[in-house]
Amino acid sequence: MVDNCCAPGCTNRRGKKKGVSYYRIPKDAERREKWIAAIKRARSRLNKTERWDPPAVCFRLCSDHFISGQERFISMNRVYYKGALGCVVMFDVTSSASFLSCRHWKRDLDNKAMLPNGESIPCILLANKCDLPQRVVPPDSIDRFSKANGFITWMEISVKENKNVGEAMRRLVQDILSVESSLDSLQPKPQEIVNPQLDSLVDGGAGCC
């Protein structure tokens, strides 16, 4: 039997996309209710008003709807990105699952938010917990991933020790200001308004008798 993801708008099915896992609805009543409630909320955001109940068989969610392996259903909407000028995608260097989830977030951002000129908004990749010795994501992998997925740059940080956090935010702000400046230069300048009546007074002078 083919496994299809039951998440609203998701077309994933087993064998179609590599690296995707499928999870059955939990038998535990409390967890089961949370899963169903999350899916119904997602359906309502997509204006799906017809009644929906979980199918009796083969009710599964794919791993694209989980955050870093946590049982937390993702239901992103463009409204969350509205007006965004920059973005931070952060992962845990001690967790390969956390690192791999960054691809999903960057693609989601690029699909749902963009600059007025159609380009992606500036996004920086942050490798958190660099103070810990048990890292599993090497710097060269992060560097290749950052370049391949359109991040402006990547930096190692430690939120716990406040290492490089300020520097990372300054770098992102600099890119945002640079982008805004370039967009402003593309805006058409307001044309001068010519008033023929005033021009004739200036050219001919004004008299008094």
Element layout with pairings:
Blueprint: E1 22-24, H1 29-45, E2 60-62, E3 66-67, E4 70-73, E5 87-92, H2 96-112, E6 123-128, H3 139-148, E7 153-156, H4 165-186, H5 196-204
Parallel strand pairs: 5-6, 6-7
Antiparallel strand pairs: 1-2, 3-4
Describe the structure.
The protein folds into 2 domains: 1-75, no CATH class; 79-185, 3-Layer(aba) Sandwich (Rossmann fold). The chain is 36% helix and 13% strand. The protein has 5 helices and 7 strands. A 3-stranded parallel β-sheet has the order 5-6-7, covered by helices on one side. The protein has a two-stranded antiparallel sheet with strand order 1-2.
Describe this protein with a few key phrases.
globular, alpha/beta, about 210 residues, Rossmann fold, 2 domains
The total count of helices amounts to: 5
Helix-residue proportion: 25-40%
The string of secondary-structure elements, in order, is: EHEEEEHEHEHH
Q: Domains counted in the coordinates: how many?
A: 2
Sheet with the most strands: spatial strand order: 5-6-7
